[in-house]
Design goal:
transcription; single chain; 51% helix; mainly alpha; DNA-directed RNA polymerase; DNA-directed RNA polymerase subunit omega; 108 residues; Pol_omega/Rpo6/RPB6
Length: 108
Amino acid sequence: MDIKKMDAPVNSVTYDRNAVDAPTDNIYEAISIIAKRATQINSEIKKELLEKLDEFATYNDSLDEIFENKEQIEVSKFYEKLPKPHALAVQEWLDEKIYYRNTKNSEV
């Protein structure tokens, strides 16, 4: 997933309820699927951010030698400006990029 290419809004947006629950015909099921995807996106972003910040980490026990790294600050600012995981998940849902299945209805 490339979050830089997603066109999810950064600010709050009001969505059409009928558009959100159209694939499942159940708003609660749709929101549950979106929430699970948002959790996945959040963990992916967190993992990526920690990997990038780990490059700048210094492992000193001395508290006197703490300094600010400009590259580290720029990376943090970039991730702060990204759309939130729930906004990305809703956008994926509306673009029909999320695969889901109802295990109660499927016959095995």
